[in-house]
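Protein 1 of 2
SEQ + STRUCT:
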Amino acid sequence: MPMPQNSTIDWLSLRTEVDLVSLVRERIPLVQKGSRWLGRCPFHDDKAHPNLDVAPDRQYWRCWVCGVGGDAVDWIRMTQNCSTMEAVRYLRQWRGDPVVPARPSRPDPFPRASRSHRDAAYQVLVSTLGLSDPHRDALLARGLSLRQIRANGYASLPPGVRLEALEALRRSVWDLHGIPGVAYHADRDRWQIKGAPGLLIPVRDRLGRIQACQIRNDGTGPRYQWLTSTPDDHGWTGTSSGTPFHVAGTRWMHGSATWWVTEGPLKADVVASHVHHPVIGI
C-alpha cells in the first residue's frame, strides 16, 4: 500500500535513508576519504581545496568554510532554490517511491459574506450560545470586569448546543453562505457549525462589527484557532475567516493620539481595558 504523502515515517526516511553520496555527486564530484566524502562547496567560491564534507553514516553534509549544512532535503532545497515540500516531492521521485493517488478534489469555497452580514450572523450566534461559568471565571481572572465581558460578546462553543444555535441562525439570517464557521453539504442539503469546543472570541473591525471569531481551544490541538469552514474533502464547503486584525477599545478611538498593538484579540481586549486606548490585536 503506498505511503501517504504526509506520513511522518516517509518524511523521516527521506532524511535518513536516501543515498546521500549519490545525491550530492549528481551536482559536484566527490572524493572518498575514509568514511567521508569531500567535494568543492557550491555555496561559496571554494577554489583552494574541497571543504564540503559528506558523512553518509550520519546522513549529513556540511561545508567547513561557509558553515552551510543539512540533510538530503536541505541539499535539494538549497541547491535547487525550492521550498521544503518541493524538495520532498523531488526526493520521492528521485528515490522511485510509488505514486500516491491524488486526494479527492475539494468543493469550491463560498465567497466571504460582507462585514455587515457576518456581524449580523455572529451577533445571533454569540447571543444564542451564551457564556459558561468556567469561561466567565477565566475572563475575570484575566482582569476583565463583568460589564466588559458582556460588552465584548464572548461566548462558549460546546458540542451540545450547536443545533440550537444553527436553528437560531437560520431563523434570523436570511443567507448563511459565506459565514466563516458555518459549512454546507450540498449532497445532504445540510448546514453545520464547525470549530473546536472552546471560548468564542469576537474579532471586530474599527466600527465594532464582528468580522470573524477566534476560538480558545478547550481540548487538544492549537490553543487558538479561527472559526472557519474552509472546504474539506468530505463534501462540506464554506469559507475561510482569513486572519483579520481585531480593534479593541473602540470607545476610546475617536480623538486618541495613542494606539497600542499586541498579539491576538483576547489580549487586545484585556490591554484596552487597562490603558483606555484603542488596541489592535494581530
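Protein 2 of 2
SEQ + STRUCT:
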Amino acid sequence: MLRQILFLTSNCLTAYHYDGRKLERVGCFVGAEAGLAHFDSYLERVNDVPALVLTDLVEEDFRTDSVAHTHGRDRRALLERHVSRLYRGTDYRHSKVLGRDPQNRRKDEVLFSGLLNPEFADMWLQAMAHHKVPVVGIYSLPLLSTRLVKQIWNKRSDVLLVTHNAASGLRQSFFSNGQLRFSRLTPVGTELDPANYAQFVHAEIGKTKRYLSNLHLLQRDVILEVCMISGGPYLVELERMRSQETLTHYSLMDTVDVAKRVGHHGHLPEHHCDELFAFALARQREKNHYANDVHRYHFRLFQARQALHAGTVLAVIAAVLWSGMQIVDGLLYRNETRDTEQLLAIAENRYLEIQQRAPASELAAEDVDLAVTTAGRLQEQ
C-alpha cells in the first residue's frame, strides 16, 4: 500500500512516497504562503494516501525524570499528568518509560519530550486536516533513531549518534544502555567546505559533551563514544581529522553502508540522512509519538472504510463460495436422481421379464401365499 512520509523541519516540509519497495522524493514546500499554496495543491492529489509525519525541529525538548512505579491505567494517568505539567503550552508531548531508577527501585526513569513551538506544526497539520488526509501519526526523529542505533551500534557503551539532515541540520542524540536520553539540533551553514565542516562537527560534539556533563548524564572524565554517519568528501575529511587528532573514540560510517543495513538500496545524497530516516519510518511499525485523537481522526475513518471494504469483499467471497456449493450440491442431486431412475427402469424391466416367463395360473397371489404358509406349518407338525 502506498504511503507518504512528510518530513517536517523548521525550514520546510519534504514529501516522500513509499510503495513497499522504494522511496521517492516528490516535493519540498517552504513554510510560507507560497509553500502552503503548493502544499494544498499537492494534498488535493494524495488526500486519500496515509501520511506519516516525521519531525526534526530545533524546538523539541527532552527531559529525564523519575516518577512512582505503577502499572496499567495508573501509570498512563500518572505519565499524562506529569507530561502535561512539563509541557503545558503544547499538545505535542510524549513520555517513554526507560526502566527502574537505579537510585530508587520504587521509581521509574521516564523520558519526556515535547514540541515547544506548536504553531509551526499546526500550520501544516491544519492543511492536512482540511483535505482530510489520514494522518497515521507524528513521529520524532530522535526517538526514531533508537531503532537505528540498535541496528548499527553493537557495542555496550554509551554513544552519541551524529547525523546531518539537509532540511534541518546536525542532529546529535545521546544514548545510554540503548535508550535515548538527550538530543540536540544545530543548524549547519551551506557555505562550509569539507575541511571546515569537519572542524565544525568536532566543535559541536565537544559542546554536546560539556552539556551532557552539566546535566549529569555523563561524567567529565569519561570518553564519549561517537558514531557519525556521513559520506563522500565529507566522510573523507572526517576520517583525515580523526587520524590527525587521534580521535579513536570516533566511529565513522558511510551513509550507503548504513542504508543497506536497514534495507534501502536506492540512491542517497552524499552525507545527508533525510531519506535514510524517512525510509526507516516507512518500513518500521513505530508507535505514534505526538499525534492526538484529533490529528488521527481521519485515519480512524480511513481504517473504518478499509475494514468495511474488507468485510464487503469477504461477504462477496463467502456468497460466491456458498453459491458454488449450492450449485455443486444441485449437480450431485441431479446425478443421483438420474442414477436412481435408471435403477428403477432396470428393475421394472426385470420384473416384466420374470412375469412373462412365469407359467399362467388362475389362482390369485394371495391364495398362493396362504397355501405355501399352510404347507410349511403342516410340515413342521
